[in-house]
Design brief:
Layout lengths: L5 H10 L1 H21 L4 E11 L8 H15 L2 H13 L6 H7 E6 L2 E8 L2 H40 L32 H21 L7 E5 L14 H27 L2
Antiparallel strand pairs: 1-3, 1-4, 2-3
Length: 269
């Protein structure tokens, strides 16, 4: 059995360069024909953008990524997708959750999340991605309201905790540029008994847990903006001619290399 030699294989490929060129051309033409026979697929997209007041708040890179990932989790959640499917079906665009997931894609671009829908019908693509964006935006707004309430309750809770003996003033929130937390003295500290204060603290703690769970991980300092509705795409987006032709040419090249190189090795076995 003759061992494989990369040098000899390269020489054989160069000797039959015309065969390589032929298969590359044939592969490119095959890719072009494949592109022509495929039904057109249209893409519509919408961006949801997150904003933060950098003059008042500061977020580390880790905090930014975590906050933006939370937004993406909400946008791509099963709950939001099911609501979109229900709204689309009631609007005359019946589809299943699996079909929606096959059409939809979500990508983070900096501080924005780009939502895309691909569909053979351009009007359906635009309608579906707008429903998705509206549903996700409403869900994010609700979660942001709970994040704000959680932040307010946390400040109230600290105002009561400072009344308790041995309480240590907390560090500032991670997204605040303040050097320390300044808590206003609670005037009721002098009038309420420790048992009464503990009851108020317990109530606020329960409310804080509830609001945090409903905030879905969003930060109160972030605001989400709905850029604009998607328009009906005019041109297909899938199966770009150049990309498909290049792929066909590469496949043709690999076939030519196999024919000129490895087939000869098999004959020598």
């Amino acid at each position: 059995m003759k061992e494989f030699s990369a040098f000899e294989a390269t020489c054989r490929v160069l000797q039959k360069w015309w065969l390589v060129v032929l298969f590359v051309v044939v592969g490119g033409v095959a890719g072009w024909l494949f592109h022509k026979v495929q039904p057109p697929v249209y893409e519509a997209k919408v961006n949801l953008v997150a904003n933060v007041d950098v003059s008042e708040y500061h977020l580390s890179q880790y905090q930014e990524n975590r906050a933006l990932d939370a937004i993406g989790t909400v946008i791509g959640s099963t709950e939001v997708q099911e609501q979109v499917v229900a709204a689309a079906t009631s609007s005359g665009l019946p589809l299943t959750l699996a079909e929606f997931r096959q059409k939809a894609s979500l990508e983070r671009k900096g501080w924005a999340w780009e939502m895309r829908i691909r569909d053979p019908d351009p009007l359906s693509a635009a309608t579906l991605v707008n429903l998705w964006a509206e549903t996700a935006y409403q869900k994010l707004e609700e979660a942001h309201e709970h994040a704000l309430k959680a932040y307010q309750i946390e400040r109230q809770l600290e105002g009561w905790l400072i009344c308790l003996p041995g309480y240590v003033t907390p560090t500032p929130p991670p997204f605040s540029q303040q050097s320390g937390v300044v808590l206003a003295w609670n005037e009721r500290c002098e009038h309420d008994t420790p048992a009464e204060m503990e009851g108020i603290i317990a109530t606020l703690s329960e409310a804080l847990i509830l609001e945090r769970s409903q905030s879905l991980g969003l930060l109160p300092v972030l605001e989400i903006a709905f850029s604009e509705r998607a328009t009906v795409p005019e041109y297909p987006a899938r199966y770009q001619t150049g990309a498909v032709m290049v792929a066909g040419a590469i496949i043709g090249f690999l076939i030519a290399v196999w024919l000129t190189c490895f087939s000869t090795v098999q004959h020598n076995v």
